[in-house]
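Exam revision sheet. Question 4 asks you to relate a sequence to its structure. Input first:
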Amino acid sequence: MMIFGPTVDVRPLFPRERRAMIDLISALSPAEWAMPTVCPGWDVHDVVGHVLNDYMRRLSGSRDGYGGAIFADDETLPAYLARTNEEFVRASRQLSPQLMIELLDHLGPRLDALWASRDLQSAADLNVFWAATDIDSPAWLDIGREYTEFWVHQQQVRDAVSMPGATEPDLMAPVLDIFARGLPHALRMHDRPENTTAHLEVLGAAGGRWGVVRQDGRWQMTEPLGEATALVSMDQDTFWRLATRGITEDEARQRSTMTGDADLTTAITALLAVIA
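Answer key, structure tokens:
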């Protein structure tokens, strides 16, 4: 589906990202495991527990076909995820750091094998709702979303313990690329004439430039060629934190250069690449 742009295959990166995460948390002191993170109410131990939950949930659902927890009456998807994530994190507080490390190391290759078995152009197991709500996602976007999830949680741990890393362009660039696929959804409420374009420029070694165009009554990804009706430029650290709400929209706008159609630039700087 061209609305999402060209395919991104992140599957070779999962083992490297996981190795960086395991090396990081294996060296943490007990005090560092208890450091607060940007995730409200969660310390480092809780974030690692959440990553373990993601591993288990995807293996259970996508590999084993297990439905998992049931939605409560009138529960929205964000509310369901918030509840079930919190339930697992609370339970994982009974697990030692060493056991969680061993589980991540054990389950990670099984998750890699799951992704390797997938046809990237087939329908996703789980739709990426921050990219589109009215059409099915391709498998590559679902898998890419999972990679961004793991990478971002690793950065949250690194921030909490003041340990930089895992921002090498080959590890970070696909995260930014996947996040940029949320541009059509971010602009969905803004009707414009056919062939109106908007561009996002992300500065830094892992950055790039992405375009969206209004065609056939909706916004779609396109090559960022020529002049755009709206242009937003920000650095790579600002972009990933904006997309995951590690900073506010206002903070992102203060760090950005915005030109052209003000409604479109405002919408671009409201891009969200998580379910909230």
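Marking note for examiners. The mean pLDDT is 96.
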